[in-house]
């Protein structure tokens, strides 16, 4: 029986720690940990990005992370751990904005659950990023560029709306 | 009888309100949550582009636009999200 209280969710101004997230996902019952690291890219469609600024509505974002973990446990009941850490504030190129780790007995369910988690986070978590471009202008990201990415792969569960 | 709700502002909404992260508004009973958006867009026409893409949250859950406000609700206007 999986212990849901092994899950951990965090939104923080501090740099995210790869090793910490991996350690939190670690479990003797795991045969696989899939860890997704989202990083700040230096361009959007070729337009140079200087840095990103993230905002979150923290209590609701955490509630969405909890929903994601509940859905994962429904779809992949053997899941041992779901860890989601998201950074906010000003992030430089190459920095980590999000870490999602899922620990499961087998790699197939770990890959699937981790992809479901990051795709659903991108669609539903109340988190916003503003791109500050090299030309000095800036804009809140408004169209689902990320949704187009994830649209190529099917998520097994309907998003929460 | 009037009700008071707290409205959390983010991204373009927050900037339209001089970077205030929340405001409080008073409405008659039986007001649907999308009435908040109507009022905010009337005050800030520059936000019009977000009208059809804004979702609503009440007390940390997504809700339908017709959901009736209750006194003390914490409402959030959710323009397109871009986390990750």
TrEMBL record, chain A:
Gene3D superfamilies: Molybdopterin biosynthesis MoaE subunit. InterPro entries: MoaE_sf (IPR036563), Mopterin_biosynth_MoaE (IPR003448). CDD domains: MoaE. Pfam families: MoaE. This is Molybdenum cofactor biosynthesis protein MoaE. It comes from Spirulina subsalsa FACHB-351. The lineage of its organism: Bacteria, Bacillati, Cyanobacteriota, Cyanophyceae, Spirulinales.
């Amino acid at each position: 029986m999986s212990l849901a209280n092994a899950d951990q969710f965090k939104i923080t101004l501090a740099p995210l720690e790869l090793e910490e997230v991996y350690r939190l996902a670690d479990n003797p019952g795991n045969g696989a940990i899939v860890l997704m690291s989202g990083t700040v890219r230096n361009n959007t469609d070729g337009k140079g990005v200087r840095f990103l600024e993230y905002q979150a509505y923290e209590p609701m974002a955490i509630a969405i992370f909890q929903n994601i973990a509940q859905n994962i446990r429904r779809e992949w009941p053997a899941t041992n751990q779901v860890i989601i850490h998201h950074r906010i504030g000003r992030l430089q190129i190459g920095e980590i904005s999000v870490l999602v780790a899922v620990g499961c007995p087998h790699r197939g369910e770990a890959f699937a659950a981790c992809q479901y988690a990051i795709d659903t986070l991108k669609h539903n978590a109340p988190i916003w990023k503003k791109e500050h471009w090299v030309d000095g202008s800036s804009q809140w990201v408004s169209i689902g560029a990320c949704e187009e990415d994830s649209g190529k792969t099917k998520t097994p569960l309907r998003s929460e709306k | 009888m009037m009700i008071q709700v707290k409205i959390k502002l983010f991204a373009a909404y927050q900037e339209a309100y001089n970077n205030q992260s929340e405001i409080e508004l008073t409405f008659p009973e039986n007001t649907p949550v999308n009435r908040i958006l109507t009022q905010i867009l009337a005050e800030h026409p520059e936000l019009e582009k977000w009208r059809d893409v804004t979702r609503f949250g009440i007390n940390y859950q997504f809700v339908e636009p017709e959901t009736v406000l209750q006194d003390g609700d914490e409402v959030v206007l959710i323009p397109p999200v871009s986390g990750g």
